[in-house]
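Quick check before the chapter quiz. The format below is the same one you will see on the exam, so make sure you can read both the input and the output lines.
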Amino acid sequence: MTKSKLSGNAKWLDRRTPPHVITLVLLASISALNMNIFLPSLPGMAAYFDADYGLMQLAISVYLGVTAVLQLIIGPLSDRFGRRPVLLWALVIFLLATLGCILSPNVETFLMFRIVQGSVAAGMVLSRAIVRDMVEPSEAASMIGYITMGMSLVPMLGPVLGGYLDQTFGWQSSFSLVLIFGAGVLLLMWADLGETNAQKSSSFGAQFRAYPELIRSRRFWGYALSATFASGAFFAFLGGAPFVATVVLGLDPAQMGLYFVFISLGYMAGNFSAGRFSKLIGLNRMMLLGSMVAAGGMVIAIVLFLIGLQHPISFFGTIAFVGVGNGMTLPNANAGIVSVRPHLAGSASGLGGAVMIGGGGALSAITGALLTVETGAYPLLFMMLGSSLLAVATSGYVMHVARNACELGENIAEKA
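Here is the expected output.
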């Protein structure tokens, strides 16, 4: 059965067929919601646990680092045992860890359960692999773009809800909402997610032994690093925006949550562009254009701050361009990652995700450590600009390598 027929056979709430696109949207959304719904609560959580902001910020940076490592395992596990069982078990573990976060008596216990929450990364990793199981590379970027466009509604509303819930019921209520949403996604997955991995590997070890094949591919690294630096600007924003919003701009949690909508709206617009134009323009050109849009937005933000226009709109409004750029770049970079070696789609998604999330975690931690009252927003702004410019460079590198490489999706030896 061809991939196109596999996609066309999807039936709603039928475990014997590939999942409906809505299931994939919600599956990817739970990971994004878990990342950002509690951001407006970070300063208040630091006060609740009597911890400094740098320690509390580890709920982002260490979480990202752990999810990076987990993705190295999740991908090969799904190539060996299938997408469905790995996803179901990952969501069960995530729900138990979320309950642990809610009941944590101190910051150390909270951070321990927060780390275990990293199992939800399976949703983001394997939703991409499932798309690659279902469609050819030329369609994968468009499908991933539409999925992430739909998914972006959840993280757009997440900080708004999180800020409101924090002020009304306390920080634990944000995690309670995540718990309820996650339970609903688990039930939907059980009813709708049919197995899409038709070529399971012979052993788990065989998948790890296949990693050198990916590591030797220059084009894989081009796509992986483009995704890393593009998303790195966003992860730096996650690490530094709560501090800038509250300390530099004087926003309360509810106001901060509302301004977070800007970057999510931008991301949705970029995802729509990727879904609409990637097949026409091509993966690589869309990656380059997206990276340039993000870098341009950061240049505008820095100029506005330098001339004294330090206002929430000059901060969040210009960072919306990073959302647009990421929305254009990431679906195409992710489609490239899982298409360089189609028979290793799960492993490629895991390794690419590990590089992306690991780099993002490092940038988030560094940014959080550099921000002080004296520095203002500048460490965050320049970190985001530098990361966006590196995404432009690596996108150009992919275009250079692709000129002499085979078509994406061909399972043949490829020097590139």
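If your answer matched, good. The two ends are 29 Å apart (CA to CA).
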